[in-house]
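Ticket #4471: complex job returned nothing on first submit. Input attached below:
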Amino acid sequence: NAGVTQTPKFQVLKTGQSMTLQCAQDMNHNSMYWYRQDPGMGLRLIYYSASEGTTDKGEVPNGYNVSRLNKREFSLRLESAAPSQTSVYFCASSARTGNNNEQFFGPGTRLTVL
Amino acid sequence: QKEVEQDPGPLSVPEGAIVSLNCTYSNSAFQYFMWYRQYSRKGPELLMYTYSSGNKEDGRFTAQVDKSSKYISLFIRDSQPSDSATYLCAMSPYGNKLVFGAGTILRVKS
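Support reply: We reran it on our side without changes. The output follows.
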């Protein structure tokens, strides 16, 4: 049971380049999330998917797009990277049943945009 | 003003001390309150989960929620060097979309 996996672990991009961050979970969870973490800012929600086939914007969606490919996979795409998108990106998933909605996080992707 | 305020620290304490970590919030609709622990260069992991007001204890950890004051706390008894990490509070009105505090860096010195 790998939990939540993310690829790549590290990436350096030049301004204007594009890339896709991959996330997969093997816990049969319905909901998946993408966050970014910046110093002093905590975790901020970029996009989330409550269930397969649905996606919604979070707090900071500008400059990003997402795809819920199937129940297991949720990808985040930067179409034209900017230095302001330098951050650590975390994917999370949750079962979303009852009152307990614990979110399980992946190990993160450290992205630098030059 | 942020919805959730958390002192970033760092908080440095000697081994064996009682640690108090706190968050305040402004949204009275929050009902689900969580504490996550994040070790350096790792993803956050859930430490404590509380629904509505009250206390919850798990080993050396106690979570308190005071909805009337919009204030939550995490207490760590007999702190250990292995407790050194960043502690993030998180909360939600419905249990799905979480709003996180900035995180408090805790250092426990042996």
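Chain A touches chain B through 25 residues (CB under 8 Å). Closing as resolved unless it happens again.
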